[in-house]
C-alpha cells in the first residue's frame, strides 16, 4: 500500500515518522499527490506515474527541470521547490519515484472564479521566468504533431470503447486542428528561454494574495511565444470553454509590462491553442487501457470528453481570438 511505502520513504530519508492518515490531495491529472504529516512538519508527496516514468528520456527531462527549478528559485521567483535529500530531489523506493515538498499554505483558485488581477499576476510571473535566460536561437525545423487519429478510432471501435463515437464524430476537426498546430509551430520566431508551459491555474497557489508556483516538472527551454499564447488563453477561460477577453488582456498586460519578447504576430500562431490535441492523445491511450488502474482509465475517458469539447470551442472562437490578439498587439507597435 502507498501509505506503507511513504512511511518507509520518510524513515529512509530521515524526515521522521509518518503520522496517519496519509491523505490523497486532489488536483493532479497525471501523478498522485498526498499530504503527509510528521511530528514536526507537514509535507506534500508526489508519487510519479509509473507509466510516465517508463517513457524514453524521461529521467533527462526531470533532471533538466530540477536544474531550472533551482535557477528560478535562486532568482527569487516564488515557487514550491522539491526538497533535496542526500543531493537528490527525486527519491526512489522499490522502483517507485517521488518528489517531497514542504506543505504550502494557501489555495488554488477554482477555474470558474479566476479574477482579472490574478490573470495579470500570472502574466507577470510567467514574464519573470522568460526574462531569466532569453536568447535568439538558430533556426531549426520544429517538432510537428503526427497523431494518426484513424488508428485510434479503429482501436476504440475494436474495444467497443465509449470514446469510439466521440472520436469518429470529430475526426475531421482533429485533423484540421493538427494541421493548424503544425502551421503555427512552423511560424514561430527563433527565440528561446526558460518556460513553464504547465503554469495554468491549477498549478499556482495563492497565499494571502501572493501567487506561488507548484508542480514544476515541466520546466524546460522552449519558445516564449508558444507559452504566452497557451497560458494566456488557459488563464482567461479556454479550459472551461468560457473565454473572457478582459482576462486575456489582463494576462498579456502583466506579461508585457514585465518583459517583452518583441514578437507581435500572435494572431498568425493562434493554432498553438490546439496543443490540446496532444493531451487528448495521452488520454485516449488511458481510456483504451494503458494506465495503472480503473480509476485512471475513467479519468482518461473524462478527459477525452472534456478535451474534445475544448477543441470544438477553440474552433468556434478562432476568429474572435485572432481579432483580439491582433488588436492587442497592434497597440504595442
Q: What CATH architecture of the largest domain do you see?
A: Alpha-Beta Complex
What string gives the helices and strands in order? HEEEHHEEHEHHHEEEEHHHH
Q: What value does the Rg take, in angstroms?
A: 20 Å
- Number of discrete domains: 2
User: In CATH's first tier, which class of the largest domain applies?
Assistant: Alpha Beta
The poorly predicted ranges are none
Major sheet characteristics: 5 strands, antiparallel
Q: Give the terminus-to-terminus CA distance.
A: 58 Å
Range of strand content: 5-15%
Classification by helices and strands = alpha+beta
How many strands appear in the DSSP assignment?
10
Query: How many H/I helical runs?
Result: 11
Q: Order of strands across the widest beta sheet?
A: 1-2-3-5-4
The residue fraction in helices comes out at 40-55%
Shape: globular
Can you walk me through this structure?
It comes from Aristaeella lactis. This is Phosphotransferase enzyme family protein. By secondary structure, this protein is of the alpha+beta class. The protein folds into two domains: 2-102, Phosphorylase Kinase, domain 1 (2-Layer Sandwich); 111-330, Aminoglycoside 3'-phosphotransferase, Chain: A, domain 2, CATH 3.90.1200. It is built from eleven helices and ten strands. The strands form three sheets. The protein has a five-stranded antiparallel beta sheet with strand order 1-2-3-5-4. Strands 6-7-10 form a three-stranded antiparallel beta sheet. The chain has a two-stranded antiparallel sheet with strand order 8-9. Helix 10 (276-287) runs antiparallel to helix 11. The longest helix is centred in the last third of the chain and has 37 residues, at 294-330.
Amino acid at each position: 500500500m502507498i501509505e506503507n511505502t511513504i512511511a518507509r520513504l520518510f524513515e529512509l530519508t530521515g524526515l521522521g515518522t509518518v503520522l496517519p492518515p496519509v491523505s490523497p490531495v486532489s488536483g493532479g491529472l497525471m501523478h498522485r499527490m498526498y499530504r503527509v504529516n510528521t511530528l514536526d512538519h507537514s509535507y506534500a508527496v508526489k508519487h510519479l506515474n509509473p507509466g510516465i516514468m517508463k517513457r524514453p528520456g524521461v529521467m533527462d527531462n526531470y533532471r533538466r527541470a530540477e536544474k531550472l527549478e533551482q535557477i528560478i528559485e535562486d532568482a527569487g521567483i516564488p515557487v514550491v521547490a522539491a526538497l533535496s535529500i542526500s543531493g537528490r530531489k527525486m527519491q526512489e523506493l522499490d522502483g517507485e519515484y517521488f518528489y517531497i515538498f514542504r506543505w504550502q499554505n494557501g489555495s488554488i483558485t477554482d477555474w470558474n472564479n479566476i479574477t482579472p488581477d490574478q490573470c495579470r499576476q500570472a502574466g507577470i510571473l510567467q514574464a519573470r521566468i522568460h526574462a531569466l535566460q532569453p536568447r535568439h536561437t538558430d533556426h531549426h525545423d520544429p517538432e510537428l504533431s503526427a497523431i494518426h487519429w484513424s488508428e485510434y478510432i479503429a482501436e476504440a471501435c475494436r474495444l467497443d470503447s465509449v470514446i469510439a463515437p466521440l472520436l469518429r464524430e470529430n475526426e475531421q476537426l482533429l485533423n484540421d486542428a493538427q494541421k493548424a498546430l503544425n502551421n503555427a509551430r512552423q511560424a514561430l520566431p527563433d527565440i528561446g528561454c526558460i518556460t513553464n508551459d504547465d503554469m495554468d491555474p491549477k498549478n499556482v497557489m495563492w497565499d494571502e494574495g501572493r501567487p506561488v508556483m507548484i508542480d514544476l516538472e515541466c520546466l524546460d527551454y522552449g519558445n516564449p511565444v508558444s507559452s504566452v499564447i497557451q497560458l494566456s488563453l488557459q488563464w482567461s477561460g479556454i479550459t472551461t470553454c468560457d473565454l473572457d477577453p478582459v482576462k486575456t488582456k489582463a494576462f498579456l498586460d502583466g506579461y508585457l509590462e514585465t518583459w517583452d519578447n518583441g514578437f507581435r504576430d500572435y494572431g498568425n500562431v493562434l493554432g498553438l491553442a490546439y496543443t490540446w490535441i496532444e493531451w487528448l492523445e495521452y488520454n485516449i491511450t488511458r481510456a483504451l487501457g494503458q494506465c495503472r488502474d480503473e480509476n485512471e482509465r475513467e479519468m482518461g475517458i473524462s478527459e477525452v470528453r472534456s478535451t474534445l469539447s475544448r477543441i470544438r470551442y477553440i474552433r468556434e472562437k478562432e476568429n474572435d481570438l485572432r481579432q483580439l490578439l491582433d488588436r492587442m498587439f497592434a497597440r504595442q507597435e
